[in-house]
Structure formats: C-alpha cells, structure tokens
Amino acid sequence: MQRVVSFAMEERYFKEVRIMPSHPGRMRVVTSALQAAQLILTDWPIEESEILTATKHALVACLEGKLSAGSARFAFIQAAKEAGNYVDEPERGPSTGKSFRWHKSKLWRA
C-alpha cells in the first residue's frame, strides 16, 4: 500500500515572467514557483532536456524552502528561453525629462 504524503507549500512569489505558451496569442504571466511548475508540467513544448531537468529541481527546491525564489525564477527563464516561449521584459521608455521628485520642495531662506 502506498502512502500519500501531503504538505502545504507556499507559492514562493517572484517578479513576473511573461511566457508565450504553445497556444499562439495567449501570453501567460507567471509570478510564483508553483505557477511555473504547473506550467512546465501541463503546457511545455519540450519534453526533456538538461536545462528543463535542472529547472524542475530548482522549482521543487524553492517550493521546499531550500532555494530562493529569485534563483528559481532565473532557472525558469533559462528553460523558457530554451523552449523559445520567453517574452522579454519591456524596456523602459525614453526619459520625459521630469525629475523623480514629484512633490514640491520647500524653499530654504538664508
């Protein structure tokens, strides 16, 4: 008889990663290690590769609390680049010339 062990996993959130899965025109935004693992298991164009295997191990380690979410995100991006479904992060637009200070500063009188 097999024993099923269940335990609560945290999602382990990270900065968003945009992925274009095998369904064209349907971009997905992945924001956690759990979402990344689910996407790799259900809708990934590559069955096996060294990078994908390393990514799976990284995601599991992250969900177990043994690896940082940032490291798991990096591994996930590498697998997405290999699969050809990674969408680059948008570049910042051109500067507007405005100061980063949006509040009025007080005048200092001597």
Explained architecture:
The protein has 110 residues and is α+β, with helices and mostly antiparallel strands. It has a domain at 13-87. The chain has three helices and three strands. The protein has helices spanning 33-42, 50-63, 69-83; strands at 13-19, 28-32, 86-87. It has a three-stranded antiparallel beta sheet with strand order 2-1-3. A hairpin with an 8-residue loop joins strand 1 (13-19) and strand 2 (28-32). Helix 1 (33-42) packs antiparallel against helix 2 and helix 2 (50-63) runs antiparallel to helix 3 (69-83). It is extended, with a radius of gyration of 20 Å. The termini are far apart. Residues 1-7 have low confidence and may be disordered.
Short note summarizing the structure:
InterPro entries: DUF982. The chain has three helices and three strands.
Short key terms for the protein model shown above:
35% helix, 3 helices, alpha+beta, 3 strands
SSE topology sketch:
Layout: E1 13-19, E2 28-32, H1 33-42, H2 50-63, H3 69-83, E3 86-87
Antiparallel strand pairs: 1-2, 1-3
Region (Disordered): 87-110
Biased composition (Basic residues): 100-110
Protein name: DUF982 domain-containing protein
| Arrangement of strands in the largest sheet | 2-1-3
Number of strands: 3
The residue fraction in helices comes out at 25-40%
Shape: extended
- Report mean pLDDT, rounded to a whole number: 82
Any low-confidence stretches, pLDDT <50, length ≥5?
1-7
Radius of gyration: 20 Å
Q: Mind describing the biggest β-sheet?
A: 3 strands, antiparallel
Structural class: alpha+beta
Strand content: 5-15%
What is the H-and-E element order?
EEHHHE
**What's the helix count?**
3
